[in-house]
Design a protein that fits this description.
golgi apparatus, 3 helices, about 210 residues, about 90% helix, 2 domains, coiled coil, mainly alpha, GORAB, cytoplasm
């Protein structure tokens, strides 16, 4: 039994219902035309009178009315013929779609059977590789925990190193500041002592 997807089955059912509805509508139209033609024939029989009793004016009116009715019937027949022609065209299209849907359903069924019978030639190799992957995953778990622990220790060591480096930089800066201040004070004292000695020498020279 061919496998048909729900979408294709629905489309096929819809197309068949459209064909049935179109056939029913066509029968109704044909019946309406037949009734109109029968009514027209009955009216002609009622309107027909013996030739010796008719007048010339009445003959002209009857002929005009008959001509109009004939034209109306011809127009109706022409329209019905056009409708029938169009119906045949639509019917051919619908039948084409039905055939296409049936062909697609058969093709899908063939593909489904091919998929069901398809075997993977690398199934065993794939299974072995998957087992190896699972083994590696189990081995990776403790290694990951070790890496996380080492990363944490490294991060703490880096932070401690940075703190000590910062402290060293601050201490060096403070040392340089103290040394510079000390040098400036000592130089200032030396200059003051030197000036004092020079003044003493000048005073000693004058005394001599």
């Amino acid at each position: 039994m061919a496998f048909v997807s729900p979408q294709l089955a629905t489309l096929e059912q819809s197309l068949r219902e459209s064909l049935q509805k179109e056939a029913a509508d066509s029968q109704k139209r044909q019946r309406a035309v037949e009734l109109q033609r029968e009514t027209w024939e009955q009216n002609r029989q009622v309107l027909t009178v013996p030739e010796e009793l008719s007048t010339s004016g009445k003959e002209g009116g009857d002929k005009k009315q008959q001509t109009e009715e004939d034209a109306s019937i011809l127009t109706t027949h022409a329209r019905e013929a056009a409708i029938e022609k169009r119906k045949l065209q639509v019917k051919e299209k619908v039948q084409f779609q039905l055939n296409r849907v049936s062909n697609e359903a058969r093709r899908l069924d063939e593909l489904r059977r091919e998929l069901d019978s398809l075997e993977d030639p690398t199934r065993r190799e794939v299974s072995d590789i998957r087992k190896k992957i699972e083994t590696v995953d189990r081995e990776l778990k403790p290694l990951k925990q070790l890496c996380e622990r080492k990363e944490k220790e490294l991060k703490e060591a880096v932070l401690a190193h940075n703190d000590k480096t910062k402290l060293k930089t601050e201490l060096v800066s403070r040392l340089m500041e103290i040394v510079t201040t000390s040098e400036r004070v000592r130089m200032q004292k030396l200059e003051e002592l030197n000036n004092h000695l020079e003044q003493m020498e000048k005073m000693s020279g004058r005394a001599l």
